[in-house]
Write a structure and sequence with these properties.
62% of the residues lie in helices and 3% in strands. The chain is an all-alpha fold.
């Protein structure tokens, strides 16, 4: 009986060691499972936090886009206003330039009325008949014997017309022999 009891005791000790080992393994597996569960909970929290951040960024992006659209509209409006002002200034400048030119023309017209520029009477130079005299050196020149027409024989007396200025006063009368002096 004692042998049976020892055999049983060995069997129970072996079972106790196996049970103890199984308990240790179970505790290790529970620790591992708890660690994994904590990591999973942490990952879920991080995921939720990231989703919240992405939602916040999406809202901020929408706000920035709306602000960008508003700024673009304001810029376009400012450019249109600026262009309209530039055109208005250009039109005003052209109008004032036209007024200045019209005023200058009027000033010159009035100045010409008050202080007219006298018209100059044309002065014609006194021209005397010019005669070219040649000295005859007595040499004879052989050349073609062409008959030249006489100078004054065939010419008829031409009638000279009177010359008058803008006012109708006679300056030169072709019928008279004396020249009027100016």
């Amino acid at each position: 009986m004692q042998q049976k009891a020892e055999k049983r005791a060995r069997k129970f000790r072996k079972q106790a060691r196996l049970l103890e080992q199984a308990q240790k393994d179970r505790n290790e597996w529970e620790d591992i499972a708890e660690y994994r569960r904590q990591q999973w909970v942490k990952a879920i929290r991080e995921r939720d936090h990231k989703q919240d951040q992405m939602s916040q960024l999406a809202r901020e992006k929408e706000t920035v886009q709306e602000r960008l659209v508003q700024i673009t509209r304001e810029r376009d409006t400012a450019l249109r206003v600026s262009e309209n002002r530039r055109r208005a200034w250009k039109m005003r400048e052209n109008y004032l330039q036209d007024q200045i030119e019209a005023g200058l023309v009027e000033i010159h017209r009035l100045n010409n009325l008050l202080h007219p520029i006298p018209r100059l009477v044309p002065v014609y130079p006194v021209v005397e008949p010019q005669v070219i005299m040649a000295d005859d050196d007595g040499m004879e020149v052989d050349g073609p014997a062409a008959a030249s027409p006489p100078l004054h024989e065939d010419m008829e007396d031409e009638e000279l017309e009177s010359v008058s200025d803008e006012d109708g006063e006679v300056i030169f009368d072709g019928d008279s022999n004396d020249e009027s002096e100016v």
